[in-house]
Amino acid sequence: MTNLLFEIGTEEIPAGYITPALDQMKTLFGELVKKYRLEVHSVCCAGTPRKLVFFGEGLPQKQENILEDIQGPAAAIAFDKAGNPTRAGIGFAKSQGVDIKELQIKKTPKGEYCFIMKRTEGQDTRHLLPDILREIVKGISFPKSMKWKENHIFFARPIRSLLALFGDTVVPVEMNGIKADRYTFGHPFLSGKRITIPAADWELYKRLLRQEKVVVDIDERREAVRAKIVQLMKPYDAVIDDEELLEEVTNLIEYPNAIECSFDKEFLDIPAEVVETAMKEHQRYFPVKKSNGKLIEKFVAVLNRNEDNADTAIRGNERVLKARLSDARFFWKEDRKIRLEKRVEDLKTLSFLEKLGNYYDRTRRIVALSDYIAHTLVTFRMLKIDDIVPVKRAALLCKADLVTQMVGEFPSLQGIMGREYAEWDGEEPSVAAAIAEHYMPRFAADTIPSSKIGAIVGLADKFDTISSCFALGLIPTGSQDPYSLRRHAYGILRIIEEHEFPLGLTEVLSQSLALLPLFSEPGSKHLIKEKTTSIREFFKDRLFHINIERGYRYDLVNAVLNAEIGFDGIHDFLERLKVISDISQESWWPDLVTVVERTFNIGKKVNSGGSIYEDAFTEPEEHILWDIYKNTEADIRKKIDEKKYKEASYEYCRTFAKPVHIFFDKVFVNVEDERIRNNRLMLLKKINELYSSKIADLSQIIMPDTKTSR
Amino acid sequence: MTFQEIILKLQNYWAHYGCVIWQPYDIEKGAGTFNPATFLKALGPEPWKCAYVEPSRRPTDGRYGENPNRLQHYYQFQVVIKPAPDDSQDIYLNSLRVLGIDLVKHDVRFVEDDWESPTLGATGLGWEVWLDGMEITQFTYFQQVGGIELEPITLELTYGLERIAMFIQEKESVFDLEWVGGYTYGDIHKQDEIQFSIYNFNTADTNMLFQLFEMYEKECQRLLKEGLVLPAYDYVLKCSHTFNMLDARGVIGVTQRTGYIGRVRNLARYCAEGYVQLREALHWPLLKNKPAASL
User: Fold this and answer.
1) Which domain CATH number covers A355?
2) Does residue A362 share a domain with residue A394?
3) Which of A199, A589, B95, B236 is most buried (most C-beta within 10 Å)?
4) Structure pTM?
5) What is the domain range of residue A670?
6) Are A616 and A509 contained in the same domain?
7) Is the distance from CB of A648 to CB of A639 less than 8 angstroms?
């Protein structure tokens, strides 16, 4: 067993590319090992901006041999009656490169046939490795790749060296004019040395690099940076609160270190989010915040350097931040000279999507839709009538900060600057807060708007984006979702769910679509209907996926999605799903499913809406079941209307499980007489629909198979 | 080290490396990349090494001389090498050493930067080079110019001369830089910043600029038809600067903006294609400078 060490030496690869590239190297190697009939005991990876390293432990010296039986012609064809080989027999032996004597005759289900035992000798691993390593390099894909020489290997950044050792031998591989060798390189500034690696020894390799100021192991480097930052922050009672940033800076350096820097206290007058963004977005600095969340005039920068001469780096970084904060303060001062209200008009200069006008038009649509949603909620007593004015105000101002200089410079501050400027202008605090909140949730784990005003404007904004894109046919497909419509749908779902808004999807969508200039013609009704249907399908798909991700069983999600009442009331849908998932654990669940399923299957034969004719009953069980239905229907419906789904389910099950079972036992439904038959079918259908149209279509449930589970 | 010494040292260093010491091109432009010594010469297989100072205009970056770090007119030091050498990073780092920057003392970082010039139809991959956190150079391996995939690849280095000088001289404001004994950067350029900011943002005649854009575009198209690629390219530069002026005056909407950029890009693309044909017809004369080994 021999080890393999492979290092791709590069110019600085973008931080975000490193870990994914290493993961791909592992996967590719795994596939190649299989393809080349090798094996490997374990693999690990390491990397810095200048090195992608792969280590495989315990590779065999040789590829596995292959022994295979190759079937030839039937024995009767290959040999004549005297047992002498025929032309066919000789031909087969020749084609396989063996002597005719090596042909064996074996019995198969189809008769006797000629066979040859063929043995392919495994090749030496070291002869296979050049191809394997080449395939790894060519197989790694990056978000963006480049060429750097007159050749056609693409990589994230130029490859400048290759180290490839199998045991203590260099693997003779050459790519882009670079021959692999046994050399790696120390830190370009702190060492500058070329390091000779004697053999594929993981610990030795890492140690030799560490001696030359390169910590090649990502975890080790991250924890070293973390320790240093924590140490610098400790006196201020501050902690690292951005793991993503830590991960990124870890992959910007080879030697882990950090320095404490300061800035002028006067910059703390600028909103804290601005200062933090100026630090993080471009410079990757860590803000220092007291335990109460208050920013202080310090920051931490990582350093690809040891302690010596740290003060020049401190001064340099302080100067850079000062320039950025000065710019930010200039914008903060200038932007406040114009009221947000006045900027709404300027949104005309900001185009939205082709054919859909600009952000001013969009603002007007958001206002109109917010107004509609607010009025709907007032009807349901979910919103005070006095809140309609601030809702419309927040909707009017929600995009105005897009034309401020600050948001131009720091786009991620959209909404936040709107809030700050609105407060400055003296807008209601609820309006200012809603401006910032309407973008939420910005990512999956983000919180949703806490205020109803923010939630309403947020919904209007998201619905408008989705409607606009669908109107233009910009529909997400596969992994393509350039306008983040899935994220918007997810946001809508979360807001409706957590604020328990009783909104009807179809109604909101038709309102939203009707506001678009494309559909403003009187004759656009059918177009709106068409688009509403396709957006509904999109939401159905989203509801399915989101709830699967949340851990719901897919058959339960399908059952609730496909109930006739559907998912138009998103909040109600989620409630029902919760209940169904809940009662699927109850002891009476199988009985409930059985009732709905049996009545569904047989009920397929008639259309709904028919009447029951008592005079067509011929059996006592029919009368009994019909009486039970008449006596309990109203009560069950009432419970459903009150959204007491669990009680309704239980009562339905308790009421119908037994009589339906007896009915099927005693009454033959498919009799010749059409009137009698249809009457029976209709009775069962009514029982089915009482549940499956309003709560969940349990015929979609897949019950665990008791036979296989035994 | 004075501002002009920095320029002289860089010129010497790159002259010694074998670069043609070119001169600024005499038409307004946003960056050294627009100089035909970069844009056109990056095309085709002919080897090319060249370095020059480029006065660059970015009307929207004007701050009336009030911001110590922003200018509507500034200087770049531009180096282009085709094909990109294997030791690109080393020769660049050596140029910093020549400027007296101690790379053991300071934190040098190559920070990811996917460079793109939509008006020139040019893209490249490389880095911003940071010196103690400050961006001092754009280091780019061109991939595409004028919409044409490059073969071989050209290396472009763009030094921000003011930033490097501020770093070396440890100045907080660009206007305090010492150009040469007795003259600061502010002595020489402060009034320009004030006057041109006023002109760019408030005074420029937008009707005239709109007309000029149309005229320049037509002339460029006409020259291209005549096969006069090099004069045609001058008009690409004029269009681009006129567009920048209109942009600074805030009279171009976002949608329109995309349209104007597209028009300039089209012109640039035709010039690039025309230039390739022109050189090809001459059988790529500069191939004579290609090192024999790689022929």
Assistant:
1) 1.10.3210
2) yes
3) B236
4) 0.78
5) 558-700
6) no
7) yes
